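One such given next:

>
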Amino acid sequence: MPVAATMPCPLFVPPTEAACHFGKNRMFSIFDANSVTIHPVTILKGIQANRLTMSLTKNIIISAMLTIAVAANAANSREFTYQGLRYSVRDEIGKTCRLAEGDITGIAANTYSGYLTIPAKVWDGDTEYEVYEIGRNTFQGCETLTGVKIPDTVREIGASAFKDCWQMTEAVIGSRVRVIAPEAFYGCSYLAGISIPDEVQEMGLMAFAYCERMQYVTIGSSLAKVGWDPFYDCIGVKRVETNCPTIAKEWFADSKGLRELVTGDRTTTIATGAFKDFTNLERLTLGRAVSWIGPEAFAGCIRLADIKANPMNPPAIAESTFSQTTYDNATLSVPASAENSYRTNPCWGKFFDSSGITNAVSDHHGISIEGNTVINPGNLQITIYTMTGSVAYSGSTQRIGHLAHGAYILAVEGDRYKIYF
């Protein structure tokens, strides 16, 4: 198909990186330019820490959470049992507690059979405590736990809290959780999906890695600190809806079964190469605040057919953000009042075919264009849409000649083509 002449893209300047990570083996994460968080070292299957060399121009505050300190703290916390589960007092004055932490070697503190609804309040004798935290390793390897509902009182889910609970099919995260620690749900193979509430600000490395049967992921608006590969090898994920400010590269590494991505109106940035070679991706919706999409963010997405861009100002992209196949074949829908801005943009304009009807329509359906008239000799049922998605024509007449100059989407016999006159 002929392609409009390529114009150089405007100056493409990436935004300040909101998150950067060191080491392919993902043991440490830097979350912003002013602070470094080093999570407790977790022994991963087959993973060893890389040597790190860090050089930052700004002041760096390093918070090292040593395993020995955590263990010592757990040892000094008073424990009690309520309804068959072990808890430890977190704050005697504030009357808060946590589900007891597991052993330093990963031995779980608790076991449970069936679906567990964690209570918001528990009692030790006559004293009431609020459940504030899910302790580290508390249910790790519990093969009889089939689901969990976490109350709104909980603020943090500890490292490896539900790791390898492979029979768990549902996890409902309370609305006030702020931290999901590293590997919290690692290896929960049968987890059907996850919704991460708006209050969650931090998610540790590989938090949901190897949840192979997960179908959907919904991410709230506050997530800002993310470790390496939180959804690594979640090969079953079909739909992701996110409202967080930035979508970083490798969030969904090796999760290339993804078919639909929807960004909310708080999302501004999609990182370079974020969804490169996601060959099953078919639909993309960009929220109104998206302003920057990195080079090769959607390169190699050969099945990407429908793009709905809601920003009134075309987001900054590079020519390599999308593959030529996508520019040639995908349907781009934009706000009606912004169509000219997209059409005249050197990169977004590549979606608007200025050379008339594609050869495929003529070859497969016998349809052609003469001037501003669509010729339909076979009286096929045709629907013609504007680039904003409204119906410009629907019918089966042989000559359709009332359409204004511009780009359209022609739908016929289950196929869709871009046309222009």
